[in-house]
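Below is how a single chain appears once it has passed through the pipeline. First comes the sequence as given, then the structure the pipeline wrote out for it. We keep one example in the README because the format questions we get most often are answered faster by looking than by reading.
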Amino acid sequence: MHQPAASTRPPRTAWAAYAACALALLSAIPSFYWAAGGTIGLDTVGGAIEELARARDPAGVALGIGAGVLKVAGGVLALALVRPWGRRVPRRLLGGVVPGRRVWC
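Resulting structure:
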């Protein structure tokens, strides 16, 4: 039976990628909720974005969906840093992160 290759990232780095993924996915939920017409918590956004969402303007719906999609994509890219399938993701999409080279101090 074929075993997937282990991650090259140390465990202390892996938890950060999983946390970033979780936060990105959690932050996408309100974006999709507001784009679908929900109003709970919408007053926390304020300004023109709140007005677009309350008016159910197509631009506001598109903005909410677009923001949610970008947040989900960010979560997937965070996972790509630590999962074996992430080796197939072009490095330029991961911000130039190269295994074995420190990016943060």
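Helices lie at 11-35, 47-54, 58-80.

See the next section for the split statistics.
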